[in-house]
UniProtKB/TrEMBL annotation, chain A:
Residue span(s) of domain Tyrosinase copper-binding: 400-411
PROSITE patterns referenced in this protein's UniProt entry, alphabetically: HEMOCYANIN_1 (PS00209), HEMOCYANIN_2 (PS00210), TYROSINASE_2 (PS00498)
GO biological process, one term: melanization defense response
Protein family membership: Belongs to the tyrosinase family.
One GO MF term attached to the UniProt entry: tyrosinase activity
Gene3D superfamilies: Di-copper center containing domain from catechol oxidase, Hemocyanin, C-terminal domain, Hemocyanin, N-terminal domain
Name under which the protein is recorded: Tyrosinase copper-binding domain-containing protein
This protein's record includes keyword Secreted: yes
Cofactor(s) named in the record: Cu(2+)
Swiss-Prot/TrEMBL keywords: Copper, Disulfide bond, Metal-binding, Monooxygenase, Oxidoreductase, Secreted
A single GO cellular-component term on record: extracellular region
InterPro entries associated with the record: Di-copper_centre_dom_sf, Hemocyanin/hexamerin, Hemocyanin/hexamerin_mid_dom, Hemocyanin_C, Hemocyanin_C_sf, Hemocyanin_N, Hemocyanin_N_sf, Ig_E-set
TrEMBL record, chain B:
Organism: Drosophila willistoni
Catalysed reactions listed for this entry: L-tyrosine + O2 = L-dopaquinone + H2O; 2 L-dopa + O2 = 2 L-dopaquinone + 2 H2O
Protein name: tyrosinase
Entries under SUPFAM superfamilies matching the protein: Di-copper centre-containing domain, E set domains, Hemocyanin, N-terminal domain
Keyword presence, Membrane: no
Domain Tyrosinase copper-binding, first and last residues per copy: 398-409
Top-level taxon of the source organism: Eukaryota
Gene (name only): Dwil\GK17810
Lineage: Eukaryota, Metazoa, Ecdysozoa, Arthropoda, Hexapoda
Keyword Glycoprotein part of the UniProt annotation: no
Gene Ontology MF, one: metal ion binding
């Protein structure tokens, strides 16, 4: 990057705990601060420390004095060593104000100064969150790539001994090529005695958890209205989490476990214990655990206060409004929950977004406070001065089995609403004159069998240097290798006959498990809730026969994982502008390596379902003058930056509502624009080393 | 010829590879290539050259053929090591053996260098410490304080982030001490938290670690375990801990600790240590409020025991106590008599390898620790290691430690209460009488003792791995008191010069209801403050004794032995005196905190007949100044009486109150302990 201001912004994602004046960019660059920027600890030593860190650097970026020093008192409640939680409304408020402050900076130079000034005066996670939101939403910072959260705070994502090993490797061996990749252990949170451990590869996946954080970056729940009030935000909250559960339940089937039970009774014991073992670098404390059979209790702490009964009341009110078909806003007006906007209203009201909820006084803060109560089960009255468990933090919540139980409870509320809507009718589902005649998914190899897909373990590597604060790794990269599920790339091929004129269709691809946990065929009403969206794209249909091909790597759901784990530093960035744009990491998106569920060693059968809907009913008129966005690849879960959600149908269509048929076979039989085929996913228990 | 002092460098930076620089004067070991681990052997040149930059001293390491380390290496480098776990004890025993059997210091250095990067770091520290303490050619070495090598076992984990920052950002001259916060493990909502300064005191936890270092309960070489009266000392040292703890509880308006006498009850007291084990890269697991114990089935630790097993052992032990004999492995009866009964029981309950019949009486005390320390993950389902109760350097932090030991003590008292009471003639020392006692701080009111808070700085740089070198200090807060002097007037009417053994105890006057205590209760709270021999000339004598001379404590400097501080040269009597003794109650905790309005106490002094009590042995240079709780190295316990005498047995009939118990050679005085809530900085 040529502009040093933009470079400074990129560097502020590195080494989040180190003072802003230390070297970054592998020891090559420092920021030159005005004296007034030094915090009290270093003000007297300012010359000493700045000299110390500016020796041997290649680039010094001068930071402009701030026109006016901001008043940061609003953030005082959250100390530098506290854990920051997006589920906590106080923290949300603070984050909202900080985002506003960053967005208000009049120009790029002042924004850089503001960021450099505030960094060491604010909680590091709060800073990284609001800073990333601001970078993503400011006009003048479009070019700045947002560093993957797992590289900024690797402690929240990997087993802590890997960090110790990384420190050792970096301090003993110079970066001359002899450094080896540090291994991040697998299966460290529980043993096979714990049934839930079979899903650890999913729950503790680095990509899954960083997706969750980046989703919340794109869709903050509070802050300036312009940032929060995104098109169909509430609906996307419902849909993204609904899809996570469909995927999770399918993974459970792959591991011979039944569907996850909703946590509908907050008064019962939680049988699933969880011991995260990961260490937060911010306060150097391990995330608190939850022992088996823990009871939830009312939370009464300085940082959070919530009774279980409150959550129960909110639940009852939300359910009552769903049954009645309307919600009441704060002035007592009834707002109907209709087919189109009802789910969006409910999403913002249940999550709840304090800015967008239609009546947060009455409907409360159901989803967030569930996280709060669960995350404080070990110390509800702050007797033991403990911070929240993993459920309190968006970077870590998805590690815990109870996350899925809580979200199943939340999802059931949404599904109840969806079930009360009329089933889709033929005019909504059909596409006259279009028939899908043949469907297959096939691995790349020419001799591959159609409709047999493959998963396996893969070892990949990530660069941890950016997150090893106060470490000796300033001189280079330090790689850690980790093992994750992977799927072999494949291609969909569809033969479509168009008996009409040239038209545009939207091709919607899903896979669904065929049988339930009792090995009985799933009824469509159950199966639709387990349908996993694989891809969605528009296709031109010429009159007559068309062959549509689509690569699995083009999925509208997923982002390529490797991209987000590129080593830090200019040397690793592609040079061409085009390539750079594509390379740009936007963070949000389901990890490509988990696009397919794991399947089974002997093969597990799925329905591969394809529907081509009428684009004239799907199309969205985008506002003019919005720039093309490089990170549009994963719009199904993440929407499009600065644009409307690019599909007019309700999310999950056609499986979000009841369908007129009893089984998937009947459905595809009734509608020629749909087709299905059996798909087998074979899991091969071997590790392919890519690292 | 290798310098044995270099061995001490091997304790530093326990998680770093052995070839990195160590010591105040930067020093590296020149490690033979064949000694390096697989990771570094192929790049030996590069890493050793890099480590050797700017060093001032190089220590050659002789390449020898290394003994078989498979057993010590069977404990993973990342595992938590616990002396309470039998498998770990066996592993440690093997490593101690290897270190003990090396023929010369040079060979010991070689094997230690070889083993250091291959065996578990805490195991290495423990086994090498025990070996250095017991080898004739190294026993005058001054072991570094455990807290300097593994500070994370003693300090809030949050502090480490700051220490790291300070070392990284600031050059070593201008570094400021990092303040270890008070009150970080719990809030005032938890009544137990009022005792934080006692349970989490660094000196107390170091004492406990060192006590178990000096008195291991298992070793291949039986003589390391079979020290004079070790079973009795196990009983007595822990009895005193409970007495002291209860007195601290009275100093905080809390009732005496409830013995944990029903292993099936939930444990009300939760505890969240908030410390990391840097070796295991894990936090010490917490215990939530109201956790229940469960049967243990943890294959990897080779622990498969039911609560029922512990209950059976307890019942058999109580049966033996009530029948007044134990049955050894060959079926013979061993009487539990007045002299040796308590020693037998101590070894049997703890249990050490000296237990007369470990298959029948089991391993009660150790397994209590194990059961409690695994309550959060009884079957290793969650791959969790033990909590703080599983480690002797951390166990005393947890409120449940005292509940468990209160129960163990109750079992010992079951035996003691069956012995016949001391009679007046036994207690008396004819011709000797105490005519007056006064206790005073320098310039203070007589018979008022004063406590307050003090902040001290500790250099933790030796335990910080992979950070830039140079001192970095942590500042912690601990209880302190004004030093005081006992003035004792003793009348010798025997007409000849006599020797007396002066025994000083303190106990609260009133119970938790504010009622004066019966002696049968008060005796269990009698805290030993000092014991010393005194020459008594005919006629009046005035004995003066300073609190800092106490036979239970060691001075602050010794608890935290700073290797850099000036210390006596080796092989001088003072140098030898300095050695061995990390063991000893920390001087700053000699007296309990007291209350702001004053805690009323009885200070008791007895002069017994030294001719009856003395042990004839040479004590010079044996670091005997904390003998009451720690004994004397390689010597007999320097008091023939039962430990805790004269309060180890129930008082005779008629002595319901302490005042009625007194014979002329005893006296009491009312003493008030007053706490001032102020903090002073320690002057270095």
């Amino acid at each position: 990057m040529t502009n040093t201001d933009l470079k400074a912004l990129e560097l502020l994602f590195q080494r989040p705990l180190e003072p802003v004046f230390t070297t970054r960019d592998q020891g090559k660059t420092v920021l030159e601060l005005p004296d007034s920027f030094y915090t009290d600890r270093y003000r007297n030593d300012a010359d000493d420390v700045s000299n110390r860190f500016s020796q041997n650097v290649e680039l010094k970026i001068p930071i402009q004095e701030l026109a006016r020093k901001p008043n940061l008192d609003f953030a005082k409640k959250l100390s530098l060593k506290n854990q920051f939680s997006l589920f906590n409304s106080n923290h949300q408020d603070i984050a909202g104000k900080l985002i506003q402050l960053f967005l208000d900076a009049p120009n790029l130079k002042q924004f850089v100064s503001l960021a450099a000034f505030t960094k060491d005066r604010l909680n590091p996670v709060l800073f990284q969150y609001a800073y990333a939101v601001a970078i993503a939403h400011r006009e003048d910072t479009r070019e700045v790539p947002i560093t993957n959260i797992s590289q900024v705070f690797p402690g929240n994502f990997v087993e802590p001994s890997a960090l110790k090993d990384a420190r050792q490797e970096a301090s003993v061996i110079a970066d001359t090529g002899n450094r080896v990749h540090v291994d991040i252990p697998r299966n460290y949170t529980a043993s096979d005695r714990e049934d839930e451990q079979r899903l650890a590869y999913f729950r503790e996946d680095i990509g899954v958890n960083s997706h969750h954080w980046h989703w919340h970056l794109v869709y903050p729940a509070s802050g300036p209205v312009a940032v929060v009030n995104k098109d169909r935000r509430g609906e996307l909250f419902y849909y993204m989490h609904h899809q996570i559960l469909a995927r999770y339940n399918t993974e459970r089937f792959c591991n011979n476990l039944k569907r996850v039970q909703p946590l509908s009774n907050l008064r019962g014991e939680i049988p699933e214990g969880y011991f995260p073992k990961i260490l937060s670098s911010v306060n150097n404390r391990t995330y608190p655990s939850r022992i088996s059979n823990q009871l939830l209790r009312d939370v009464d702490r300085p940082d959070a206060s919530i009774e279980i009964a409150e959550v129960e009341r909110w639940r009852d009110r939300v359910l009552a409004s769903i049954d009645q078909g309307f919600v009441e806003n704060s002035s007592g007006q009834r707002i109907p929950l209709d087919e189109v906007t009802g789910i969006d209203i409910l999403g913002n009201l249940i999550e709840a977004s304090s800015t967008l909820s239609i009546n947060s006084q009455y409907y409360g803060n159901l989803h967030n406070q569930g996280h709060t109560i669960i995350s404080f089960a070990h110390d509800p009255d702050f007797r033991h001065l403990e911070e929240f468990g993993v459920m309190g933090d968006v970077t870590t919540a998805m590690r815990d089995p109870v996350f899925y139980r809580w979200h199943t409870f939340v999802d059931n509320i949404f599904n109840k609403f969806k079930t009360l809507l009329d089933p889709y009718n033929a005019s909504q589902l059909g596409f006259d004159g279009v028939s899908v005649d043949y469907v297959e998914a096939k691995l790349g190899a020419s001799n591959a069998q159609a409709n047999t897909l493959l998963t396996y373990w893969q070892k990949s590597s990530a660069d941890l240097a950016a997150g090893l604060d106060f470490g000796p790794s300033a001189d280079g990269n330090i790689f850690a290798s980790f093992t994750h599920l992977q799927n072999a790339p494949f291609t969909y091929t569809f033969n479509v006959t168009n008996n009409g004129p040239k038209r545009t269709g939207t091709c919607r691809i899903f896979i669904c498990p065929k049988v339930d946990e009792r090995n009985q065929p799933l009824r469509l009403e159950e199966q639709r809730l387990l349908a996993i969206e694989m891809d969605k794209f528009t296709c031109e249909l010429l009159p007559g026969e068309n062959t549509i091909r689509r690569e699995s790597s083009d999925s509208s759901v997923a982002i390529p994982f490797e991209r987000s784990f590129r080593p830090i530093g200019a040397a690793y960035q592609p040079k061409g502008a085009d390539e750079l744009a594509r390379f740009r990491f936007c963070g949000c998106g389901w990890p490509q390596h988990l696009l397919l569920p794991k399947g089974k060693p002997q093969g597990m059968l799925f329905d591969l379902f394809v529907m081509i809907s009428d684009y004239s009913q799907d199309a969205v008129q985008q506002p003019t003058n919005t720039p093309n966005d490089a990170c549009s690849t994963a719009y199904s879960f993440c929407g499009l930056k600065d644009k409307l959600y690019p599909d007019k149908r309700t999310m999950g269509f056609p499986f979000d509502r009841r369908l007129p048929n009893a089984s998937l076979a009947e459905l595809t039989g009734a509608f020629s624009n749909m087709a299905k085929t059996d798909l087998k996913i074979v899991f091969s228990d071997r590790i392919v080393d890519k690292a | 010829m290798a310098n044995k002092n270099n061995l001490l460098l091997l304790f530093e930076h326990p998680n770093e590879p052995v070839f990195l620089s160590k010591g105040k004067k930067p020093t590296v070991f020149d490690v033979p290539d064949s000694f390096l681990t697989d990771r570094y052997r192929p790049i030996s040149n590069e890493v050793q050259t890099r480590a050797g930059e700017n060093v001032e001293q190089r220590i050659p390491v002789r390449e020898i053929s290394v003994p078989d380390l498979r057993i010590p290496m069977s404990l993973g480098r990342n595992e938590n090591f616990s002396l309470f776990i039998p498998r770990h004890r066996r592993i440690a025993g093997r490593l101690i053996d290897i270190f003990m059997n090396m023929r010369s210091v040079e060979d010991l250095q070689s094997v230690a260098v070889y083993a250091r990067d291959r065996v578990n770091p805490v195991l290495f520290n423990y086994a090498l410490s025990v070996a250095l303490l017991h080898r004739p050619d190294t026993q005058n070495l001054d072991l570094p304080a455990f807290s300097q090598m593994f500070p994370e076992r003693f300090v809030d984990s949050q502090v480490f982030r700051q220490l790291r920052e300070e070392s990284f950002v600031v050059s070593s001259g201008s570094r400021m001490p990092i303040v270890i916060p008070r009150d970080y493990t719990a809030s005032d909502l938890d009544p137990e938290h009022r005792l934080w300064y006692f349970r989490e005191d660094m000196g107390i936890n170091l004492h406990h670690w060192h006590w178990h270092l000096v008195y291991p309960f298992e070793a291949a070489d039986r003589s390391i375990v079979a020290k004079d009266r070790r079973g009795e000392l196990f009983y007595y040292m822990h009895e005193q801990i409970i007495a002291r703890y209860n007195m601290e509880r009275f100093s905080n308006n809390l009732a005496r600790v409830q013995p944990f006498n029903n292993l099936r009850d939930p444990i009300t007291e939760g505890y969240f240590p908030k410390m990391d084990s840097l070796v295991a890269s894990r936090a010490w697991p917490p215990r939530f409020d109201n956790t229940r114990l469960g049967d243990l089935n943890r294959e990897a630790d080779q622990i498969n025991l039911e609560i029922g097993d512990l209950e059976r052992w307890r019942d058999r032990i109580l049966e033996a106590i009530h029948q007044k004999f134990v049955v050894n492995e060959t079926g013979q009866r061993i009487e539990l008599d007045e002299a040796t009964g308590i020693d037998t029981l101590g070894n049997m309950i703890e249990a050490s390898i000296l237990s007369p019949n470990s298959s029948f009486y089991g391993d009660l005390h150790n397994n209590g620790h194990i059961f409690i320390s695994y309550a959060h993950d009884i079957n290793s389902k969650h791959l969790e290691s033990f909590g703080v109760m599983g480690d002797s350097s951390t166990a005393m932090r947890d409120p449940v430690f005292y509940r468990w030991h209160a129960y163990i003590d109750r079992i010992f008292q079951e035996h003691k209460s069956r012995l016949s009471a001391y009679t007046e003639p036994q207690l008396n020392y004819s011709g000797i009488s105490i005519t007056g006692i006064q206790v005073a701080t320098n310039g203070g009111q007589p018979n008022v003792l004063s406590t307050f808070w003090q902040q001290s700085d500790l250099n933790l740089s030796r335990g910080l791995d992979f950070v830039p070198r140079g001192n970095v200090f942590a500042r912690f807060t601990h209880l302190q008191h004004l030093p005081f002097t006992y003035t004792i007037n003793v009348q010798n009417d025997s007409g000849a010069m006599r020797f007396g053994y002066v025994r000083i105890f303190i106990a609260p006057k009133n119970d938790e209801r504010g009622q004066p205590m019966q002696l049968r209760e008060q005796r269990l709270m009698m805290v030993e403050l000092d014991k010393f021999a005194a020459q008594l000339n005919p006629g009046p004598n005035t004995l003066r004794r300073r609190s800092t001379e106490s036979s239970v404590t060691i001075p602050f400097e010794r608890t935290f032995r700073n290797l850099d501080a000036n210390r006596p040269a080796d092989n001088t009597p003072e140098g030898l005196e300095f050695n061995f003794c990390g063991c000893g109650w920390p001087q700053n905790m000699l007296i309990p905190k007291g209350l702001p309005e004053g805690l009323p106490c009885d200070l008791f002094i007895m002069v017994s007949n030294y001719e009856n009590d003395r042990i004839d042995q040479q004590l010079t240079g044996r670091c005997s100044d904390a003998a009451s709780y720690c004994g004397v190295k390689d010597r007999l316990y320097p008091d023939r009486r039962s430990m805790g005498y004269p309060f180890d047995r129930v008082p005779r009939t008629g002595a319901e109150r302490l005042a009625n118990f007194l014979t002329p050679n005893m006296s009491i005085v009312d003493v008030t302990i007053r706490h001032e809530n102020r903090t002073v900085q320690r002057q270095n």
